Amino acid sequence: MQVYWQAMSGSQRHTSRFGKFTRGVGAALLLPLGLGSCARQVDTFQPRIVITSPQGGGVAKADNLFLKGYVMDDRGAIQLTINGQAVPLDSGSPKIKYFSYQPQVEGNQNTFTFKARDRAGNESTLTMDLDLDPQVPELKITSFERFGNTIRVAGVATDNDRVAEVLVDGRRLNIAVGQKVNFYAETQGIYADITVLDRAGNRVERRVQ
Hints:
mainly beta, Immunoglobulin-like, 1 helix, six-stranded antiparallel β-sheet, 3 domains, 18 strands, five-stranded mixed β-sheet
């Protein structure tokens, strides 16, 4: 590559990777033209694949499974495959491309390999192991009391994987995630709506009164 130099004049001190130069009136500084632009044209950024759904940490519901996320690249990803199948990328953003894909699954344990490529040919690969959980949590009420308009309710939630959330009248309780969770809550009204969810998103709901 040929390197061209340009003469510049001025009256201030200039520091560059070539050293320090003092430019006064009539002084000339020779700077290389083309080196910076050549460096900027080299694209070594690998696409980044981000999975946003399922959110269960490697566990998902068995029915109606969708793999969702996006591919981020400084110049834009142009191709995505999941287990060798081409997946469409939206064209809404130059640097972030979203995708949604409903895969074919076999049994309750599946592995998905994501491969993305950008315009410069850089590639990245992401492998995700996913267990499908068809079982809903179980809920047992152990105590229910009403004092005027105040309700006190306690119970036990269990799951074959992990209980992730317990809600009473839409309010999420502070629990320790596990296969068996004891809970207690106070609420207002004539009944209490209790919801239990596991990591896969399976849920059981019950109204007690």
